[in-house]
Write a structure and sequence with these properties.
alpha+beta, five-stranded antiparallel β-sheet, eight-stranded antiparallel β-sheet, 652 residues, globular, lyase activity
Length: 652
């Protein structure tokens, strides 16, 4: 099935097969990926592994980095030194004796990456001494919590990079201690893990655990190759074999079903795998060539509204975007991956917002105006320093992504905006897909809307995992009857979706999105929601359109079968809501939006209700300060067709 040293042409052919069929089945990205033919390092490549340091950057790359003299490079090195100095002042990491260690191992990973690159660039022995202390503490732990294997993956990457980058400064005894910890606490526990046809093993998963665990272990294995060549080879080949299960989820247009935060997490580790392989073998073995992967930054950029806030679908937090169009105050870095993707695509536009963020961070440090609320830099900032390419082609000031973006795949999406670089622009983003996905919500057909600098329709994002665990919920169970859906935020109640008789969406469904033909400046999409409600009504479609005057239409159409019932249109907002003869008036931050509610070709008036959902409903729920839910209800008869239309008009 996975043939050694297969020809690239066969590999790319299989990629095209996946791209074509990615949206046909919600689990397709897991099953079809078995058709990939993987390439592995050749005997010659194994025999030619370079000396330490070799992971991500060798001595020659460090010397090149020191000579980079452009404004971004100078800012990156200043920030690297600043971060290293802050790390020297940081207290000792407290590792929990039992249970989750993820926060602690992420902290040590940050410290080792930061101090490691800073030591290579600046030569300050204080950075080495502190990094050694951090590594020794990590190696002395009895385990890295294999019961939650993300902890192991991240810890193994930290130890592997530390061993490699400081290899020539450690004593033989210190090298052996770190090597044995990587084997005992990282690699050996992974040998007990089996692949799973049910997509519940990190080894061959189609979600973020795959690259985090396989990527971290690959880095650790490459670091210890001299000591355990056979074992290292086994782990590297296993990681290359199974990464296609994750790589297939980007097809064909780069969307990521787990949401924007998990795109950053999973994609970072896949990129780390790519860069580790390139730095050691001179080849990535084509694991950056999955359809949609290299254009997945479109997914990130498109899902940031004119206000600078992300579309927080799935388990994402509601926060200011890492790619904000607003002043990038109170943070050091935004998204390290953007420099890597800009380099790979030879497109400086991809790095535009990241460049703004880095230069602003430099000015904050120089002026010493960092507040106590200053957001911490990315723990992968050191890799960002290495990924910046000063030789990127100049940026075309007129280069923007399309105003209307439609993406197919495991989680189809559509985004329409009236303009780029206009904080007052109108904007709507809508998603398809399925609730039955890692970190999925019951939010299919949900949307967000912005205009005049206000987000009028919200997605509240993730609920606290700790709260859900404390309530003894099966929070990773996405089945139809799972108690995960009783939690307000991930369940159906918090989303801007269609409801019939207040029922749940069908988790076996998969909504697709098609693009409408542009007509005189009117652009739009249709979401086929039928499979999400197949036991409730016969057909369901949601259409969204944007008009030249920046107004937005959301129209639901459904056909009923043998059952009568009640339709509900849910709209969650942070605005003041007033019911008017024409429908609803939303008011926030001195701005207004009219929602004209109508049933075309009918005198029937739907019922409009406003609910305060600002307070937690259950023990596992968080408060949602200032948030209301608008419910537009309509009784329907059996064996009939119905339409409800809402026109959202920004008030000038």
């Amino acid at each position: 099935m996975f043939l050694k040293n297969a020809k690239t042409a066969i590999f790319l052919l299989m990629l095209l097969v996946i791209a074509k069929s990615s949206a046909q089945n919600k689990l397709k990205s897991h099953t079809v990926s078995q058709q990939f033919v993987s390439e592995y390092p050749s005997e010659k490549q194994w025999e030619s592994i370079p000396v330490h340091p070799r992971l991500f950057a060798n001595d020659a790359r460090i010397e090149t980095l020191k000579l980079q003299n452009d404004e971004v490079s100078k800012a990156l090195l200043l920030l690297l030194k600043n971060n290293a100095e802050k790390t020297l002042k940081a207290g000792k990491i407290e590792y929990p004796s039992k249970g989750f260690k993820l926060e602690a191992v992420r902290n040590v990973q940050d410290r080792i990456l930061t101090l490691g690159l800073a030591f290579q660039v600046f030569g300050d022995v204080r950075y080495f001494e502190r990094a050694k202390a951090e590594l020794m503490q990590l190696t002395e732990l009895p385990d890295w919590n294999p019961s939650h294997f993300l902890d192991v993956g991240e810890a193994t990457l930290a130890a592997g990079v530390g061993l490699d980058w400081f290899y020539n400064d450690f004593t033989p005894t210190e090298r052996e201690k770190i090597t044995q910890a990587i084997i005992k606490n990282g690699i050996n526990p992974s040998l007990d893990v089996k692949e799973s046809k049910e997509n519940n093993s990190w080894m061959n998963a189609n979600f973020n655990w795959n690259p985090v665990c396989n990527g971290g272990l690959l880095v650790g294995a490459l670091a210890i190759y001299e000591r355990e060549p056979k074992l290292a080879r086994q782990i590297v080949e296993r990681s290359i074999k199974y990464i296609p299960y994750h790589g297939a989820v980007y097809a064909p247009d780069g969307t990521y079903a787990e949401g924007m935060a998990y795109w950053s997490y999973g994609t970072l580790y896949q990129v780390a795998m790519i860069e580790a392989l390139r730095s050691v073998f001179g080849s990535s073995f084509k694991i950056e060539s999955f359809p949609g992967f290299l254009k997945s930054t479109n997914f990130i950029t498109q899902n940031v509204g004119p206000t600078g806030y992300e579309y927080t679908f799935s388990d994402a937090g509601f926060k200011e975007s890492k790619l904000s169009a607003k002043p990038l105050a109170e943070r050091f870095t935004s998204e390290p991956l953007m420099f890597w993707f800009a380099r790979e695509n030879r497109n400086r536009v991809i790095a535009r917002d990241e460049i703004i963020s880095i230069l602003l961070a430099k000015s904050i440090v120089i002026k010493d105006t960092v507040s106590n609320a200053q957001k911490k830099h990315s723990r992968h900032f050191a890799l960002e320093v290495l990924w910046w390419d000063p030789k990127l082609p100049p940026m075309d000031k007129k280069s923007f992504l399309p105003l209307h973006w439609t993406a197919d795949g495991h989680m189809p999406m559509a985004v329409i905006r009236s303009a780029w670089n206009d904080p007052l622009a109108s904007y709507i983003a809508i998603k398809g897909g399925t609730p039955n996905n890692s970190h999925g919500h019951m939010d299919v057909g949900s949307f967000i809307i912005e205009s005049n600098g206000v987000r009028w329709a919200l997605d509240l994002g993730a609920e606290s995992y700790d709260k859900m665990r404390a309530a003894k919920l099966d929070l990773w169970n996405y089945s139809q009857d799972s108690n995960r859906w009783t939690t307000f935020r991930p369940g159906p109640d918090s989303h801007n979706i269609v409801r019939f008789n207040n029922s749940r969406q069908d988790v076996s469904g998969l909504a697709t999105i098609s693009k409408l033909t542009d007509q005189k400046g009117v652009v739009g999409n249709v979401v086929d929601l039928t499979s999400l409600y197949k036991s409730q009504v016969e057909k369901v479609f949601r259409t969204v359109k944007m008009f030249p005057d920046k107004s937005i239409v959301i129209q639901d159409e459904w056909e009923t079968g043998e059952k009568e019932g009640e339709y509900t249109f849910q709209w969650v907002t942070g605005a003041k809501v007033s019911i008017k003869p024409y429908g609803v008036l939303l008011e926030q931050n001195g701005e207004s939006m009219k929602l004209n509610v109508e049933i075309p070709n009918s005198n029937v008036k739907p019922q409009i209700l406003i609910e305060d959902v600002s307070k937690a409903k259950a023990v596992q729920d968080s408060d949602n300060p200032g948030v209301s839910r608008m419910l537009i209800k309509l009784k329907y008869a059996k064996m009939n067709k119905f339409v409800l239309k809402i026109t959202a008009v920004p008030v000038k």
